Amino acid sequence: MCIFCDIINKKSPAKILYEDDEMIAFPDINPSAPVHILIIPKKHIKSANELKAEDQALLGKMVLTAKKLAKENKIDQSGYRLVINTGKDSGQIIEHLHLHLLGGKKLGF
Ligand code: AMP
Ligand code: ZN
């Protein structure tokens, strides 16, 4: 279906940092910061525009997973940024919803 579905289905490789029934997390292949992890729902949701009320708990769990990974990567005190790019102007290139966890340096805009 898409490259992230292939990673979820273990058809493409990734260093899996976290996985449960609903989501998976792995390092970004082209990191923008010393810590750059993608948290991805296993459900193929194209973007935030396609989110439904039934996805509310899933999104909450993705943020809590990001918080856990931030602590594991020791950036919880120095700080981090959570980003969901959505659509053309945001620069979204993969059309499968993903939460970026960025940190480990002072982040610019
Ligand atoms: P976005 O611009 O929000 O769609 O971000 C997509 C991100 O996915 C980019 O930061 C890419 O570097 C990253 N990416 C693309 N393919 C892979 C892959 N196979 N494994 C890990 N990260 C990837
Ligand atoms: Zn997908």
Describe the biggest sheet? 5 strands, antiparallel
Question: How many structural domains are formed by the residues?
Answer: 1
E-strand count: 5
Q: Which outline best applies?
A: globular
User: SSE string, helix = H, strand = E?
Assistant: HEEEHEE
Helix content: 10-25%
Specify the structural class.
alpha+beta
From the alpha carbons, calculate the radius of gyration and give it in angstroms: 13 Å
CATH superfamily: HIT-like
CATH architecture: 2-Layer Sandwich
Q: How far from one another are the termini?
A: 32 Å
Strand content: 15-25%
Short description:
This protein is α+β, with helices and mostly antiparallel strands and 109 residues long.
Protein architecture, described:
There is one protein chain. The chain has one domain: HIT-like (HIT family, subunit A), CATH 3.30.428.10. 21% of the residues lie in helices and 21% in strands. A hairpin with a 3-residue loop joins strand 1 and strand 2. The longest helix has 17 residues. The mean pLDDT is 98. The site of adenosine monophosphate has 13 residues, from loops.
Question: What characteristics describe this protein?
Answer:
109 residues; alpha+beta; HIT family, subunit A; five-stranded antiparallel sheet; 2 helices; 5 strands; 21% strand; binds adenosine monophosphate; binds zinc ion
